[in-house]
Amino acid sequence: MEYKPKLRRVSTLTGTWVDRSVASGVADDEQDEVLTRRGSWTGRFDFLLSLLGYSVGLGNVWRFPYLCYNNGGGAFLIPFTVMLVIAGLPLMFMELSLAQYAGLGPAVLFKRLSPLLQGLGFGMVLVALVVMLYYNVILAWTLFYMLASFEEPLPWKGCHHAWTSRQCYSYDEESQCLDLNGTYYMRECYANASLIANFTKVAKKPPAEEFFKNYVLQLSSGIEHTGNVSISLSFCLLAAWLIVFLCLCRGVKSSGKVVYFTALFPYVVLIMLFVRGITLPGSYTGIMYYLKPDWEKLKSAQIWGDAAVQIFFALSPAWGGLLTLASYNKFQNNCYRDAIIVAVTNILTSFFAGFVIFSILGFLAHELDTEVGTVLDQGAGLAFVVFPEMVTKLQMPMFWSVLFFFMLLTLGLDSQFALMETVVTGILDTFPQWRRWKLRVVFGVATVGYLGGLVFITNSGMYWFQLVDKYAANWSVLLIATIECVLVAWIYGSERFIQNIEEMIGQRSKCFVVFWTILWKVVTPATLLFILCFNWIQYKPVSYGKYAYPEWADIVGWIIGLLPMGVVVLTAIYKLIADISEKSLAEKIIALVRPTDEWRAAKVALYHFEYDEPVTEL
């Protein structure tokens, strides 16, 4: 018998035996073990598709086409692309690189990068939490409409329903009345036109609008009249949260697989809708409304401001989502390539979605014998009023309605995944001992999300939705992004940061270094200040249609909007007070704004090798 020692790998954290192995190939194994502590993307394209799904969302379909039409048509692409290069892409690349280098989510990343500004991470998690509450309500509406689309005929077709008002106006019913030589007025067909000659002219409301407001939302007269929780929407909201929970119950390992479908399926539907749209009468007129460039608009600050705001909220920096997704990357992942791919895909998707939407709007205008501008809408109005009204005029309306709302569901789910993962990661990074109960944490966050979302499905829910949507991710997000940019480029140092990037993706050219240094130090912060000032100048109190919110509601909105920034300030004050050293205030600030000793690359080895006890070999 001969005794021969063998190598074994031992955790430097717990001192426990990991596995029996030889020293060859150690570096790669150690790096993977570091990532496994928090979980990591298991597939080659998991991160890229998750990032694509997070960045390409509902706004690309229901907001960008409207902005493009309203800001000079095709001319809008010029400021949109410029703002992408000088604001959107630099912030996205910065956050992806920062989180991938440290392997941490926002809650702990800033604690190590700059303890004084640890509140930046908390602020981001808070923004994600608030947006998560009302964003899933959109998915609940979508589920409601998708299920309702299986009814024949579609439930929002025609005005003879209990939920319609006297102002409901159905063009199909009007056409049938005209065929009988009658006159259509306030849902009724009158054989004798002289009977209504002296009647007052009333506003016309399409059945789809009445269905959305009176049946789905059961909208009250104002935010102060809360009313009851909608039972049907409460079940839809529960289903939406159940879907999110099931897809995130295992973290990025499960959500990374779901996005292969949810990130790519919307493109299939958009292509199908485009092919169908361009074959409809009036589609050419609609597309020309969308594309016709008005070069004079480029001289207006409005077009540049709208482009900057749209690209900022499309890529969603400073919400915590980009940092969270990138924190699960392998250290050598080419995040620079990923940022460019997603940014370019975002603008191309937005532009293509405009063709789809305006070909459909052109058809609707043709059917109603009116101008495209009169049927144009954005946001929820486009998704839940204009499109449902249009689809009733197509052949196979059930098929196209189910397809459209299923597309909206998949578009929204990817963004919701990232928002919820940001909150869960923030909790687990802050309390790492809870990782053993991750399933319970995810369930707890989903439960809180469901309960918090109930206010948005009351009779006054739409008023609360508009209020929170306007303020939740506005002022604070812009301020957090500006401080983050200054922190990384000036305090941490852009040169040092680029060296960290080169550790991950390899050495870059001199032009690369100069280009990104100028952007991060000067151009991007200046652009963020421009967006902030533009939002201040353009600020108007929130409204919904003709409804003016009471003063107390605006105050609540401002509190919601400034709360994340308040967390940043209060955390900084706490850090200064907690420092009981004899240093002056200036010395404390200088010390606390610098990285701690814990700030390091995620590739640091957590294992060393020891010889095992002698084993007997025969």
Automatic annotation (TrEMBL):
GO MF terms here are: symporter activity
| Domain of life, source organism | Eukaryota
Q: Which UniProt keywords apply?
A: Disulfide bond, Membrane, Metal-binding, Sodium, Symport, Transmembrane, Transmembrane helix, Transport
Q: Where in the cell is it found?
A: Membrane
The UniProt transmembrane annotation reads 45-64, 76-99, 120-147, 229-252, 264-287, 307-328, 340-365, 398-420, 441-465, 471-492, 513-537, 557-578
Q: Which cysteines are joined by disulfide bonds?
A: C159-C168
Where is it mostly found? membrane
What's a GO cellular component annotated to this UniProt protein?
A: membrane
| Record-linked Pfam families | SNF
Q: Which residues form a coiled coil?
A: none
Q: Does the keyword Translocase apply?
A: no
Q: Does the keyword Membrane apply?
A: yes
Binding residue positions for Na(+): G53, V56, N60, N346, L411, D414, S415
Membrane topology designation: Multi-pass membrane protein
Recorded family membership: Belongs to the sodium:neurotransmitter symporter (SNF) (TC 2.A.22) family.
Identify the PANTHER family for this entry.
SODIUM/CHLORIDE DEPENDENT TRANSPORTER, TRANSPORTER
- Official protein name in the record: Transporter
Instruction: Write down the species.
Output: Culex pipiens pipiens (Northern house mosquito)
